[in-house]
Amino acid sequence: MFFPIQDLLFMDELFEVPWKKRCGDTKSSHHSFIKDHRKCVRSLDFETSPDDRMSFMGQADAIIPGKLYDPTNEVYVQGRKRAKSKIHEFNNLHPDQEELRDNLIRDLFGSCSGNFLIEQPFYCDYGSNIHIGNNMYSNHNLTILDVVDVRIGDNVFFGPNVGLYTAGHPLDLERRIGGLEFGLPITIEDNVWIGGSVTVLPGITIGKNSVIAAGSVVVKDIPAGVVAVGNPCKVLREIDERDKRRTNFRK
Fold first, then answer.
1. Shortest CA distance to 84 belongs to which of 104, 114, 57, 61?
2. In which band, very low, low, confident or very high, does the pLDDT at 3 lie, cut at 50, 70 and 90?
3. For a 10 Å CB count at each end of the chain, is N or C smaller?
4. What is the DSSP-derived secondary structure letter of residue 24?
5. Residue 63 to residue 52: CA distance in whole angstroms
6. Domains in the chain and their CATH numbers?
7. Per-residue pLDDT band at 8 (split at 50, 70, 90)
């Protein structure tokens, strides 16, 4: 599931919330506007099924993808505090404390398999929604906003300053100021290399064996086995036999 950049114009239609039924029109000052709408957000009927409401009030990893939710709910606040505490400890460990670093990050993540290495510093929202495959490597300053699942396959490499952002806000001013958010999952399949300073937006899947060039902004799914570049990120070419035979890596 993904939302191309042009589809963001219609995002609010997907996440409709009955503001006027519950809150009415707000004609007050700017500060009163924010205060009134934050109050309304916390009492909204999100027009979900009973099961969805139970999940919304459950653990942080039970946020429903594509559904608006209130991140100031105490369950989510406590989940983020737990993560920040562990991340602070992780980021301030001496490089020689490799075993402790590994144990801390494994305890933070939802699941992980085999060996992987994440260089300091690292940042995330909850950690419990991050799922890591074998032989994953991240250079410095990886940031993952994991309000919903982020799944990273085997043999995935990240350059420095990469951002994976599952979180988004409504384009509608009232709900955005009110504090509502939504999340869409991100999947990075096996053997992907993501270059430095790449940004991956909510709902994206990057297919196996692909390479994302440094500085790209990924706004739609990328197929398997390609080189993709730019803002917005587009497929440049397929990776083929020429790449296997290449020995000169000069420009």
1. 104
2. very low
3. C
4. -
5. 9
6. 67-245 (2.160.10.10)
7. very low
pTM score: 0.77
Q: CB burial class (10 A; 0-12, 13-18, 19+) of residue 145?
A: buried
Phi, psi angle pair for 86, to nearest 5°: -70, -40
Question: In angstroms, what CA-CA distances link 157 with 3, 71, 152?
Answer: 25, 30, 10
DSSP tag of 63: P
Is 169 considered catalytic here? Answer: yes
Give the integer Cα–Cα distance in Å for 236 and 220. Answer: 14
Question: CB-based burial of residue 98 (10 Å sphere; 0-12 exposed, 13-18 middle, 19+ buried)?
Answer: exposed
What's the pLDDT band for 49 if we cut at 50, 70, 90?
very low
Cβ contact 144:130 at 8 Å? yes
CA distance 133 to 98: 19
Q: 103-139 pLDDT, tens per residue?
A: 999 999 999 988 999 999 999 999 999 999 999 999 9
Beta strands in the chain (DSSP E): 111-112, 116-118, 122-124, 130-132, 136-138, 142-145, 150-152, 157-158, 163-165, 167-168, 182-183, 186-188, 193-194, 199-200, 205-206, 211-212, 217-218, 226-229, 234-238
Give me 220's structure tokens: 């739609």
| Mean pLDDT, residues 26-47 | 41
Q: How far apart are CA 34 and CA 175, in angstroms?
A: 10
